[in-house]
Amino acid sequence: MNHDLQIGTLRTLATIVDLGGFGRAAEALHLTQPAVSQQIRRLESFLKQPVFATTGRNMRLSPAGAELLGYARKMLRLNDEAVARFTPPRDGIRITFGISDQFSDALPEILRGLKRVDPDSQVTIRTGLSESLTEQITAGSLDLALLINPWPDPAYRIEEIGHLKMAWFGRPAVGSDAPLPLVLFTEPCTLRGRTLAAFEENGIKWKRGYEGSELIGLRAAIQAGLGVACLVANADELWGLPTAIRPTLPPPPGPVPTGLAISSRVPEEYARAALKSIREALHAYPLAVPQHS
């Protein structure tokens, strides 16, 4: 018997993870919270096990849920590309917006702002590491991308957002002379490279405590005491992560440049309004903002 996964249900899963909760996902998807919960129960019926190990402020995917999320993102990307190719919008414009997952808590406000820019627009969201999003906007599958440490390319222009302050988080139980376990994003990742360089340059012994491509996994690893990670400096306020207190830690990398990559396909009037809206939505982040913004 064949089992078909519904795109809408997979989009609900990805949105819960990206926005950090069932209520936020319901708002973004224009669903009731009971409807969102019902869709997750359908996925659990398919998996025959829980999708989330924990929910609430310390939300964490189960191992099966994390694996399913990887497939969900691939399927959503293909679905959205096919829809964009064969069903042009009747009104407004269609925008595919990528956002570095460290900014995911700002997504509800960003989406509301983009809707104010053009109420008839159709906005599709993709989250992930900036390196992956850069590849996508270079290939033409994204129109806008909010990136950490962006680099120029003929396929798009970069509008500066500011410089993002970083800090160390995590309190693993290891001796003072033992190698410090690190919680790292998988390669390619510029922040990973900067983290390892900070340790190497300061002669601090380290080992891999956890590696993963999803921010939700890194947050869970930090909360589980698996190691130390370099994340946005207010991660304690955003996600309840413990700040690192080891005196031997090197200065954190950064501040890291942040910018909005804008494809040449995006109308200039929309691009300017979207840039202003996104800057306003990031007010809670520790950004040193350029004077002209």
From TrEMBL:
GO MF, any single term: DNA binding
Keyword Membrane (UniProt): no
CDD domains named among the record's database cross-references: PBP2_LTTR_substrate
Keywords from the UniProt entry: DNA-binding, Transcription, Transcription regulation
Record bears the keyword Cytoplasm: no
Highest taxon, organism lineage: Bacteria
Gene3D superfamilies: Periplasmic binding protein-like II, Winged helix-like DNA-binding domain superfamily/Winged helix DNA-binding domain
Pfam families the record matches: HTH_1, LysR_substrate
Ranges where the HTH lysR-type domain occurs: 10-62
Family designation: Belongs to the LysR transcriptional regulatory family.
Protein name as it appears in the record: LysR family transcriptional regulator
Taxonomic source organism: Streptomyces inhibens
